[in-house]
Every structure is written in C-alpha cells, then in structure tokens.
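so i finally got all the pieces together for this one. its two components total, 577 residues if u count the protein bits. some of the lines might not be protein, just check the labels. i wanna see the whole assembly predicted at once instead of chain by chain like last time, that was a mess tbh
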Amino acid sequence: MTASASAVEVSGLRKDYHGVEALRGLDFDIKHGETFALLGPNGAGKSTTIEILEGYRDRSAGTVSVLGVDPQRGGLDWKARLGIVLQSSGEQGSATVREQLTHFAAFYPNPRNVDEVIAAVGLEDKASSLIRKLSGGQRRRVDVALGIIGRPELLFLDEPTTGFDPEARRQFWTLVNQLKAEGTTILLTTHYLDEAAQLSDRAGIVADGRLVELGPIDTIGAAEARIPVVRWTRNGIEREERTDRPAEFVARLALDGEPERLEVIRPSLEDIYLELVGNVEAAAAELAASTGEASS
Amino acid sequence: MTTTARTPTIVTPARIVRVGLSRIRYEITGYFRQGDAVFFTFLFPVVMLTIFSVAFSETSFGKDAAGHTVSAASYYLPGMLAAGVLLSGLQNLAIDIAGEKSDGTLKRLAGTPLSVISYFIGKIGRALITGILQAGLLILLARVAFGVAIATEPGKWLTFAWVFLLGVATCAILGIGLSALPRSGKSATAVIIPIVLVLQFISGVYLTFTSLPSWLQNVASVFPLKWLAQGMRSVFLPSTFEAAEQGASWNLPGVAIVLSIWLVVGLILARLTFRWIRKDS
C-alpha cells in the first residue's frame, strides 16, 4: 500500500463508448477523509466516472489511482477497503435484511456490527423481513447498509437517497456525518443539491463529459454567480439587484420608505449549478447537434 | 472505530473456503424461498415419477432374475434420479446465474472482496445439497408410495455414490459454463429448458434408450445425461436388464470417462465464459 496524499487521483480521464466520447478529460483528487460530490445532469458522465473508479469499467485514456491502486488491477484486498453503493438494482432479495448483512459482513476482514448497521440505516423494524418485501426506499437503505458493512476506507455513494422520504434523507445525512467523523473518504453523486451542500467538502460539476467546475462548495461557480441578490417590491413592481454589499444597499433603499417583500438571497448551490449546467448545455447543443449523446 | 492503518490480506485459502461454505447455506436458503425454481428443478422429477408410476401401474417393464415383475416406478426411478441431477445442477445453476447476472446481483458481488471460488463453492454446494435431498425424496417416494425394492448391496451404493457425485459436479460446472449463453435473465429459461428437455428425451429418461434409432442413440451418447442415466440403471435395475443396454453392458468405465470429460469441458467453459459483469456492455 503506497502512502499517497490523496485517496483518489484522476488525471486526463477519458472514456469512449464505440466512438462516442462519454468523458473528455477529467482531472480531480479526493483527499483522505474528504467528502466529494460529483454533480451533473443525467448522461453527463457521473456514473461512468464513478464506475471507472470502482473498477467496473475500463478507461480509454488517462491515469486513475484509488487508494493507491489502479482500479483496472484492483484485487480482493483492494475491494475489501472499498464500500460501493451502486444505483438501484432489481435483485431477487430472497434473504432477510439481517441475513444479507451477516452474509456480506463475512466477506470482509474487519466488518462493522450487523445490528449497529441495521440501526444506523433505520431498519430495526425490518431486520427480519425479506428484502424483496421492502419498499423502494427501504431497499435503498439496505444498499447503503451493504456499502458500509465492511468498514470501508473509501465509500462510493451513487445517488444513495433515491426513493427516500424526507425523514429518511435526514437520517442518512446523520449517518454520513458519522462516517465522516470516523475518517471515511466519501465520493457522492446526487441529484439533490441541498444534499451535496449539506454533506460534501468539495464538489465537481460534470457536464457533457467535462469537469466544468471544481472546488469547495462555497466557492463553486464564478465569484459573480455567488453575488447576493436583493429583491423587493415597490409600487407593485418586483425588482432585484445583485450586490456585494447588500446591507448598505438595503439601508439606502430604506431612505425612500420601507420596501415591500424585502429579501436578501445568497444563491444556493442549486442556483449556481443550474446556471453552470445551463450554459454548458446550451453551448454543447449548438456545437454538437450532429453527434449522439452518450448515455450516463 | 478507526478506518485507517490496516493492511488486510483476505485472499487466504482458509478464508475462501469458509466464505464458500457460508454461501452454500445462503444459497440454499434463498433457493427454497423461490417457488418457481423449487417446482421446476426440485419437485419436477418427483412429479414425473409419480405420473409415470401411476399411468403405467398396470404395465410390466420386464422381470428380474427371480421372475418378479418390474413395475413402472422401479423402471423410471433411475431415469428420474439422473434427470434430477441434471435439473439441480445444470438447469438450475445456468438459469440462476444468468438471472443474477442481469438483475445486478453479480455486479454487487463484484464490488465486494468475495472470491469467485467462494461463489462457485456456494453454487456447487447448493446443487449438491439440493440434489441429495431430491434423490432422497425420489427414493423415499419410490419405496414408500410405490413399493419399489431398493438395492441393499454396499457395492451398488458405492456405484450410486460416485455416479451421483460425479454427475452433480459435472452438471453444476456445465451449468456455470452455460449461464453465459442466455443474453438476459428473462430469456434464460427459454434458452436452457429446451436443451435440458431434449437431452432428457434422447437420453433414456422418459423413453427406453435402446428403443431409439441407433443414430439418435449415438447422438445422445455424446452428452453426459445418457451415461448418468445408465449408471443409475446399473444401481437400481435388476441385472437381467443389463443385456438390454447398448453393448449389452452397464459400461461403468464408459460412464466415468464421459462424465469426467464433460467435467473438464465444463471447467474450461466456466473459466473462459464466467465474468462478474460484462465490462462496457
């Protein structure tokens, strides 16, 4: 095991599917203990990227190191250090939740306690139920439980909260924060931008096979995109102004009388994301109207 | 609960076997929770033996050395035992693994430190245990419900043991190899069952082997089921039936040779075709 500074190192990563470019050169690192979110629209290349890192797909070009190992050569010892939560699947589910977790725990050299994991994903009441009899959200929690049962150093979470109700999502966030506190490195993809903002230290936004943005959550987007917006209504007309000094602006506004419906809005990750992805998609649509779009 | 500073080495033979044994248990539990698989692979020969034994209950299939009539149940028991080994081994595993490939089970396992060997131990162990239960049920049914006299000589049971074990191993390994044939889990039954059904008809399970045209007998002799059924007949039919066999002999060395060849073919096939996932599909 080489003592690498980063848990994941990706440089110049490219992937072609039968001549269609799914990834056109990605570069990013994930530090040990960091939670990194990979965001982007469907078909942008998130899943392709994560599956290359997990060893499920071979890259076309570039270098990749995951826990110091090239995923294309990762053996069982390497897999024992990973936890993988894939996008949902349609397995038979002929085992109970506890049977499934107990069985998978036996694959790993230093697994977590089965009952603790069942409790951590909130399935205590369903521990003795067959997995096929669970709801979609409950099955998803089993997926998450199977991902963490082996006490992974690096955890891949590919859209982990799909099908969760709001309470289950909050519970999941608590779990992820516990894993972070224990030092687990996490790579997360999600369509819920609030989730990415809540959980991750840094994020990368993939659009059209490229990393269009990379950095700490609160620096994502150009500085301009993060300028707060002051919004108010006067004489029935809704107005807004972007300003770096919202307090000063509001103070001046008040000189002309109290404005109606006054708000100061800091653009959320979601606002910034939509703007970024929108720009890329518009550009791509103009440029590549003839080439077929790569599927995820 | 720290997650750093450990260097696990999990690829030890002891661990591979231990996890493999835990998979046998897991596989068998899962198997008996799937109604359709249990019917079409586990109970099917039992149902067929019952139907044949009842339908031809008035028919004599020959006489033993002491001049006693051989009943339909006695006559069909060895064929059904052979069919059971084929179903529990080849049909069940080929369909099951093809299904696991397409429903994401294998993809999930591929992301864990489970060894392929442990996985195979689980599958073969499941074929063996369910095969033993099935054979036990068939013999019990024949003995209790249809009064079939079961051989008591140790030599016969020794033959049964090696034919059965070699048969299960060969069929299970061929099942793993054939699981690559169906393109999807949904088409697996449509691809595998006809193969198995045709083999049963031409190999002396349902029809008397020597009543088939000789060219068809020659075709069937290429495949393992004919030999498996012949080995079973040598155990359960009276010695007077040996003369009716191809070459007027049970030809047990032939049984051992052909099954062993197919075992090797299956191993090569499984080695070449089995993948956790199809990369870049």
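The mean pLDDT of chain B is 90.
Chain B has one domain: 13-273.
anyway lmk what u think
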